Each structure stands twice: as C-alpha cells, then as structure tokens.
Amino acid sequence: MNTDQFIAKSTLKFVETASFTWQTPSNIALVKYWGKSNPQIPKNASISFTLNNCHTITRVDFIRKEKSDEVVFNLFFEGKQKDEFKPKIAEFFKRVQSYCPYILEYEMTINSENSFPHSSGIASSASGLSAIAMCLMSLEKELNPNLSVDKIHKKASFLARLGSGSASRSIEGPLVVWGNHPEIEGSSDLFGIQFPYKVHPFFENYQDVILLVDKGEKQVSSTIGHNLMHKHPFAENRFLQANENLSKMSKILQEGNSKDFINLVESEALTLHAMMLTSNPYFILMKPNTLEIINKVWEYRQENSSNICFTLDAGANVHVLFPENEKENILQFIDNQLSKYCQKNHYICDTVGFGAKRL
Ligand code: PMV
Asked: What is the pTM of this model?
C-alpha cells in the first residue's frame, strides 16, 4: 500500500504563526467496522452516515519554534487545560509526524469542545481526531499552496484514521465508505471516500435520534474489543459477511429499498454486539433499556407501517433512524414512549450531514 503519497513535501514555505478552526462531525456506521490489523487497517470495509449536530469544534494555534524530536502541544477542552487527554493525542501525533514532519517545527495549542455532553456515551474520538487532522491539513495547505481539496480530504482522513479508525469517516458526508471493497470505486483501507454512486432520494436528510441510555464510561474500550477479534472463532466469516453486506447496502442506497435497508442495518447492529457476546473474554455493552427500546421500535414499526429502525455503536445508546417525512410522528413517539429509557430522559436529535466545515 502506497503511504508515501501522504508524506508532506520537503520544500515548504514556513510561516511564523497560523490558526485554524474546524467543525467536524461524528458518524454512525450502517455496516460496521470491528476488527483491525496494524496500523489501523480494517479487516472489512464499512459505510456510515455522517452526522450533523454531534460535532467537535477545534482551534489549533501554531507558533513556529526550533525543530524538536517530539511534538510540543498544549491541550484545552471546553476552556480548561486537560492533561489527562494528552497521552492519546501525543500518540496520535507520534503516528502522524512522519507524514506531517512540519509539526515538529511548531508549538501547537489545541482548544476543543463538543456539541454533545461529555461522557454522554457518544464517542468523541471520530469528531475530535478528524478536527485536529483538518487543522493540520489547513497548516499544510498554507505551507504548500498547491495542495488540492481532494488531496486535503484524503490526507485528513488518512491522518484521522491513524488516531481512530472510524474518524476516517468524519471528513466528508453524507455517506462515507472506508476500507477496500471491489465494488466501491476508489475505496481504500487507508482513508474514507464519499460513497461514489447516486443515492436514492429516500435517504435524503435521513434522521438519527440518539437515545442516551448509558452515559458512563464503557467497561470495555473499542481498542480491546477490536483486539478480541484476532482469536475470535467467527471472525473470518464476519469479515466476509460485512463485505457482502456492503455490496448489498450499496445497491439498497442506490435503489431506495427501505425494507432491505431496515433489515440490513438492524442485522449489522446486532451482529456487532453478537461478536462482543462471543469474544473470549465475552462482554455485553447493551443495557436492559437498550433492549426495551429495540422492542418498542419493532412494535411501533409493525403498528404504524413505519420505516423506523435502530442501530448501535460500541455502547448501550440506541440510534433511531428514520426518513424525514416521519419526523413529526416519530419524535412524538420517542418523547412519549422511549425517552423514559434514557438517562435523565436525554436524547439528541440529529440528521445526516456533509462533513468538516472550516469556521
Ligand atoms: O474507531 P474505533 O476504533 O473507535 O471503532 C469504532 C467501531 C464501531 O463504532 C463499533 C463501528 C464503526 O464502524 O464505527
């Protein structure tokens, strides 16, 4: 795999100071990524809806300094210095510095905030790392004005991936594929691409209401979960199935078959959790209220001939997906019947979005 294409040019026109602010979203996978090899190479291709309202806003200030061996940075989260978040970001910079060696010649100050409450159980690594990646690429563009927008997006996704796999799908929207797949033109294990085919209008402005069932820290991190796929007895079949499911999903998205969409999305969510249930050691991230909500969603769908469906991330929260024309009724249903299963009745209304925005 040719990663050399992502090494910054050595002849850069350095500036003394620079500052960039980016807003980048979270995303929710329809066909899930679970299992990887080093360095963050997925075992199967995945596809996600880019979200809109769940996002991170990050400003990075760069001040030129003598070149050092290690990246120098300060980190503020919601206005407060956050040294406990530093090791993860330091590890990210270590992984990207061979592709962005210019960061060794700057002191960086990162100011970050999320639109969703901290420890809401919504993973902030996808939006957080993609935002830093976009700030780095804005600096690189300043130092090398010839960089094209396409190259900036690809490299930002490539960098974000090195921090968190799913972050590679948070640069563009509304649908992003990450992972090499024979039927998706231009797809790659190294970065996410926009779904390259025309999407049926049924999926336009699709809605995602995130029901916050459990806001606590996950008992098993996604890093540990991914690693457990190495010796998992069903892993190879799962990777094959996921790639087949992506072929099916590609057709569904182009043709607009809502029944097939529902079936595939829910099956993917339950399969992800089935992999967790059958890992060794095994673990369960769903909570009793996760199952209550799933059953209510099924009941509502049946009784109202609705296109509502659910998906799950690596956690207990439930993403409720539906087309825009059902918004009024479903929001009422959520408020009346599902919010009681959420911590403090909290849920977040989101829609599919279009990716990173410079502020
Ligand atoms: O990006 P990571 O390493 O946090 O893994 C995320 C994996 C899932 O969210 C469970 C699935 C996915 O494809 O986003």
From this structure: 0.97
Per-residue pLDDT tens over the stretch 90-131:
999 999 999 999 999 999 999 999 998 766 667 789 999 999
166 lines ligand 1 (CB under 6 A): yes
**CA of 274 relative to ligand 1 center, distance in Å:** 15
Q: Which CATH class is domain 4-197?
A: alpha beta
Sign of the C-alpha dihedral, residues 315, 316, 317, 319? positive
Q: What is the 3-state secondary structure (H, E, C) of 147-170?
A: CCHHHHHHHHHHHHHHHCHHHHHC
Cα–Cα distances (Å) from 10 to 2, 6, 282, in that order, read 18, 12, 48
Contact 178, 169 (CB under 8 A): yes
Among 137, 165, 98, smallest CA distance to 20 is for 137
Q: What is the CATH number of domain 206-351?
A: 3.30.70.890
Angle CA 166–169–174, to nearest 5: 140
Residue 355: DSSP 8-state: B
What are the pLDDT digits (tens) for 193-238?
999 999 999 999 999 999 999 877 677 888 999 999 999 999 999 9
Nearest atom within ligand 1 for CA of residue 169: 14
29 lines ligand 1 (CB under 6 A): yes
